[in-house]
Amino acid sequence: MSELRYDDKVVVVTGAGAGLGKAYALFYGSRGAKVVVNDLGGSFNGEGADTRAAATVVEEIKKAGGIAVADYNSVEFGDKIIETAVNAFGTVHVLINNAGILRDVSLKNMTDKDWDLVYTVHLLGAYKTCRAAWPYFRKQKFGRIINTSSSSGLYGSFGQANYSAAKLGLVGLAETLAKEGAKYNITANAIAPTAASRLTETVMPPEVLKRLKPEFVVPLVAYLTHESCKETWGIYEVGAGYCGKIRWERSAGATLKADDSLTPSAVQAKWAEITDFSNPQYPNGPNDFLKLLENAKHAPSNKQGEKIDFTGKVAIVTGSGNGLGRAYARLLAKLGAKVVVNDIANPDNTVNEIKAAGGIAVGDRNNVEDGDAVVKTAIDNFGTVHIVINNAGILRDKSFQNMTDAQWDAVYRVHLHGTYKVTKAAWPYMLKQKYGRIVNTTSTSGIYGNFGQANYSAAKLGILGFTKTIALEGKKYNILANTVAPNAGTAMTATIMPPEMVQAFKPEYVAPTSVLLCSDKCPCTGDLFEVGSGWTGATRYQSSGGHYFDKLFTPEDVQANWKKIASFDDGRTSNPKFSTETNAHKLFAFENQAQKKKAGSKNASLSGPDSNSAVPGGGLLVAPKVDPAKFKPAAVKVFPKEYTYNFRDLIIYNLGIGARAVDTKWVFEHHKDFEVLPTFVVIPPFGASVNIQELVPNFDMRLLLHGEQYCEIINWPLPPSATLVTNPSLVETVDKGKAGVVVTAGETRDKNTGKVYFKTTSTTFIKGAGGWGGQRNFSDRGAATAANTPPKRSPDYVASQKTKESQAAIYRLSGDYNPLHIDPAFAAVGKFPQPILHGLASFGISGKLLYEKFGMFKNIKVRFSNVVYPGETLQVEAWKEGNKVIFQTRIVERNLLAITGGAIELHNFGSNHIHIPFPKEVTGLGSEGKKVDPKDFKPGPVKGKEVVYDYSFRDLILYNLGIGAKKTDLDLVYEGNKNFTVIPTFAVIPPFLATVNYSEIVPNFSLPMVLHGEQYAEIVNWPLPKNGSLVSTPRLIETVDKGKAAVIVVGSETKDKKSGKVYFRNQSSMFCRGAGGWGGQKEFSNRGNATAANKPPSRAPDFVSSMKVDEDQTAIYRLSGDLNPLHIDPEFARRGGLKEPILHGLSSFGMSGLMLYRKYGMFKDIKVRFSNMVIPGETLRVEAWQEGNKVIFQTRIIERNVFAITGGAIELGTPGSGSNKL
């Protein structure tokens, strides 16, 4: 099969600065397309702007030989984005609407800003780009559009009402454009990419998560946008190797006689028939309502079901001055409701009709955009609201070619925005009374699209997405929400229907179904119904079985397997209602595929919800489906965990939960009060487990939620270093009917002494894993199960801490390497706008803030409620009740609670400090020398100390972070990145302690008086293995007597311990103040590049780049091996004549190397002279001049305009394999 190319095609990708959009742009660039890389560069929540994201992708495309331009406009100015394409390349052929943001918050707490920003970026932005591109598509009779929806849009998602509405609105827009564009060879499709769920972010193993890269989405989109592909009007789920199609499925429904016996009670009596999908239709438009009306007229009189009564209920019906709204209002009032008749034009006629019939009603003339005012009318007159029917609507029909922004906006504001505003205003009353019924109005034009109604289709299907989410949010409060697509003759439809049809399709034939859905007898929530002419049918999604690719695949693979992807006729279809039921959510199917291959199966298509895969410790990620009533839990199996640590691990943990360099007792192991924060107790047990998948029926790791955590400290403090063993156990399983709950415990003790240090308990909820007849209620386990409800007073203590942007990058080095916390690709594919902070990091930060105020505690319990993004601020709010402190932790920027139900119980264990004596040597430079008269000094024999350096990728990442790598530098901070590497200046780390006996070869040696003078590193072979063991052998090159000081030059050679392969050689010149005058060698020998002066040319630099030193950089860098207290301990720094701790010279060296590496690529050697000390928080600027294969540089401290490094140079080239990748 020939390669699918895009030569001479112009492709516009919005939101292409990272993640999925970047993957699209790079792909099209590699296949011959001219690419417009659009990215505003804002934050995940839609704030700020930064041009670097788009520019970087363009540069990458160009370096690979492609053609691309950057565009920095917000998508709300889509015309300007298309203008960029036209100005650069003359036209546009392919448009991928990928840009997106999140403003996740429950409807109760959602602000209009939250709603408006998400709408603007997702739905309005897509309209604007499509509208601007449309004339070019039509003129050239070619166009391809991809709108990026989401499982949140298709199925709803708690806390995402705004996002769900916008995302399903994109499907409605695509469906209409598909119909309008067909005659012009313009196709339009929508995709719902799959990514990891928030429910599983703490438990997914890396081998699963790596399947969620954007590269597993791109091929489907690439095929759909190729000129050879004519597929249009499609909805596709894609991710983790799965590609499948979704279509609409409509039940045959029930036809009732269209007369006065057509009541809500009659509809209820037919409910089983209405929702019977045994003889379904697969429509692309409305039902044949004329035929249905004829059937209804000849049907027998309707049998009645249970009595439907609204006595005592207050209902709001918008747009109820005429037509369908009037029919709703009159029927509700007839059945006992008090009705607010809302109509911007004239509610009075309907109100008068209701009153004349003995009912109760008031009029309201407010625009639905002022939902607060509409609801206020209900509150002022009747005290509350129980029912809302959002019915108000307008039409502004126009072909997409001729549609104006004003026409788009007018329809959006009444339909989608008005529905949100009225519902939002009524929501608090419904929550408080734990009762509510909401019926929202969509349209078959929204469900299926319709020519000339792009605005209406998008708004109406957006309403369905909104309703699905509020149904999820409201269910626990007895708030039920459904959507109806009516076919009725109204004032609105009178402009497009013949008069006889308007008369035939009476609103009274629609109203009974909607009114049933408003009643106490409402049989469902989150569902969709088409209604009219006495007929009601249910509409839902049908998902194809799809096809699973067991490795990274191509557009050609998609083309070859299209029949499997899009087939609904092979017996593998399903009907998902929730995102957790979708085929694409089978994120673990690849392991099932491996099992099939081992069994000799060649079938690579998914076969249903029984996909299995292995979990750590054995067992299945998705257990085979069984009848819960027949399930018997297996015997408990346990998988213990050993954890070996030293002070370095304790400091890494402290830094990971927000300790700063100034918090010396948490970052300097020799501080007299050194300690690890007590929430560290969650780290050693991480990975200890039981066979949870065999203890409940229908276990599905995708539906697993780490709900609560409890830790009890038995003995404290910990030893400075030890091997701890955690033995897990099962506490209890609880059958909650629709869910199973497994409570596991771990006891952690010292492997050698057997001393128990702490116990931990984790509560895990697994949706769909209940019903086996097990224990129904949790046992009372004291503090571990306490509700910890905050008192009804202001908190006694409030403290906040802003998380660092790099917080997750640091925390993960304590052992939780889940890529969701570091790799934006997983976020960009689905719901996560950026990597999220570990839940246990938020837990640790909360514990730290409490510890600072209240001191040591013997236990801590939390419930995890919302995810946190690095850079956000966590605020602990605490109430002291005797010896117990109840707390919750708030995300300040979003006003959401990250942790609820928290408590600590205070306890004094005595000392919390971990005593680590100050050693004679901490730097390898030797101990303090004896004070002597330099003239009497005789150098002793040189003694070299060979050093073995064992490392893993963790050490490489730690080094990169220590020289300023950011969380966005994935090739430096994420071991799973395909370009993962370590900056070559790492060559100085393995031999750091391989040195000689300084104190015996110069007089009066004193560690605080030592400064690093020059450094030369030669890279012999590259890259390093990702894990290994290196041996460095030192030698003394020379000592130079400078009178008042001595200079000691030590060299080393570093080899692989096993193979003997030489990786690098180093030469270090150490300036020892006060250690000269013994009459030694006066001048340095010539050692080539190691002693070259490297004087900068007299022209302006060819390259300038700057980097700000993080305030905490010394605390991180020193963990790579240079533990000199000069860089962390203020007291030690003062002994060396310094005002404060200084940055390691080799950290400045590494930062300079990083900036040069980013510009010039790999180098074979690097030499520097350290000229001035750098203070953390200052800014370093590299100034470089390229002279052939050599780059001369100096590094300036901007704030003081002095040089940190002079005489610097690198020689370009890649030693060894020619690759920098590990």
UniProtKB/TrEMBL annotation:
Coiled coil: none annotated. It comes from the Eukaryota. Keywords: Fatty acid metabolism, Isomerase, Lipid metabolism, Lyase, Multifunctional enzyme, NADP, Oxidoreductase, Peroxisome, Repeat. CDD domains: HDE_HSD, hydroxyacyl-CoA-like_DH_SDR_c-like. SMART domains: PKS_KR. Its main location: other. It is found in: Peroxisome. Pathway: Lipid metabolism; fatty acid beta-oxidation. Second trifunctional enzyme acting on the beta-oxidation pathway for fatty acids, possessing hydratase-dehydrogenase-epimerase activities. Converts trans-2-enoyl-CoA via D-3-hydroxyacyl-CoA to 3-ketoacyl-CoA. This is Peroxisomal hydratase-dehydrogenase-epimerase. It comes from Tortispora caseinolytica NRRL Y-17796. The lineage of its organism: Eukaryota, Fungi, Dikarya, Ascomycota, Saccharomycotina.
